[in-house]
Design goal:
mainly alpha, single chain, Ferritin, 6 helices
């Protein structure tokens, strides 16, 4: 089927697949640190009563990474002559790195306070990403709404965990 597509359509499909794969890869990287602690350190700390069950996290994060990938794609398909567009893509990559860093710090280093600092920075970076994405695509910004809500919950949970442990 793809051999019958015009080159522009093939290029867009490639960018979409690559965008989603890159975001899912960030999730996989973070999961290496999470998996090491889920059965050891994490069960030993006290958690707030509003903590979702453990089985919820993997499917929710999978959907969020896919939405992030589609959002990134909607920005990436614009022409790159615009310096502001290049900066927007850089901001997205920065927040994605913070996303990975949170798992490294919270689960890998077992640092509740460090995780809190990173998740606060991540929340701000997502807001910044949404603001800059909205300049080029309202849909790209809207696709990040579930992500900012989930990270907002993570921020509250991380703060609560810090306060009770």
């Amino acid at each position: 089927m793809t051999r019958y597509m015009n080159p522009q359509a093939r290029k867009k499909i490639f960018k979409l697949v690559l965008s989603i794969a890159a975001c899912l890869s960030a999730g996989v990287m973070g999961s290496f640190f999470t998996a090491q602690s889920v059965d050891s350190w994490y069960p030993l700390i006290r958690k707030p009563p509003i903590s979702p069950p453990d089985w919820v996290f993997a499917p929710v994060w999978t959907v969020l990474y896919i939405l992030m990938g589609v959002s990134f794609f909607l920005i990436w398909i614009h022409k790159f002559e615009n310096r502001q567009l290049k900066n927007t893509l850089t901001i997205f990559i920065f927040q994605l790195l913070l996303n990975i860093l949170w798992s490294v710090v919270f689960f890998g280093f077992h640092s509740i306070i460090g995780g809190l600092v990173v998740v606060i920075l991540l929340f701000g970076a997502i807001l910044w990403t949404m603001k800059t994405f909205s300049i080029f695509s309202k849909a790209a910004a809207i696709l990040l709404v579930p992500y900012i809500i989930w990270v907002g919950l993570a921020l509250v949970l991380n703060l609560w965990i810090f306060l009770i442990n």
